[in-house]
Design a protein that fits this description.
By secondary structure, the protein is an alpha+beta fold. The protein is built from five helices and five strands, in the order βααββββααα. The protein has two domains: about 100 residues, Alpha-D-Glucose-1,6-Bisphosphate, Chain A, domain 4, CATH 3.30.530.20; about 55 residues, no CATH class. The chain is elongated, with a radius of gyration of 21 Å.
């Protein structure tokens, strides 16, 4: 008798960025778990990654379904692995949260052309809102630039 485990890892990255990180994280699977777990197969179908792994020599399979704000990992553990279900769920939650954490400030650095585009979009948004850019406080300018940066990232990810 097997046991289905299901772990939902929330994120705020959007579907494309989360899928990119999961795909990149697959290469770190083996060094993280050593010889106790071996990744045997992976394949993407839309926003779902199907995988097969061998845990202490016992083969099992599962999926990772990525949505705009979460990744759901489901795996069917064979009878011999059922006693390790809680530990497996904890490891999936921990490593998933690390993998899908918000980017550090260094990752958010823009190139000079991207910075110029953010400034241009921020000024245009302020003008569209009936605000004079030169009269805005630094806090208000940061808010407009933050929204422009998010818009630029959404466009780049889509």
């Amino acid at each position: 008798m097997s046991k289905l485990i299901s772990v939902v890892v929330p994120h705020r990255l959007g579907t494309n960025e989360a899928m990119r990180r999961i795909n990149a994280g697959i290469s770190r699977f083996q060094p993280t778990f050593g010889r106790a777990a071996t990744l045997k197969q992976t394949s993407w179908a839309g926003n779902t990654l199907a995988f097969a792994i061998s845990l202490i020599g016992i083969r099992t399979a599962g999926t990772i379904e990525v949505t705009e704000d979460s990744a759901r990992v489901e795996a069917n553990l064979p009878l011999l692995l059922v006693p390790f279900a809680k530990r497996a769920e904890g490891l999936i939650q921990k490593h998933g949260a690390e993998l899908l954490a918000e980017p550090a400030r260094a990752e958010l650095q823009l190139t000079p052309p991207e910075r110029n585009e953010v400034r241009r979009r921020a000024k245009a948004a302020a003008l569209a809102a009936g605000r004079d850019w030169s009269q805005l406080s630094q806090k208000e300018r940061r808010s407009f630039r933050g929204e422009a940066r998010k818009e630029l990232q959404r466009l780049g990810a889509g």
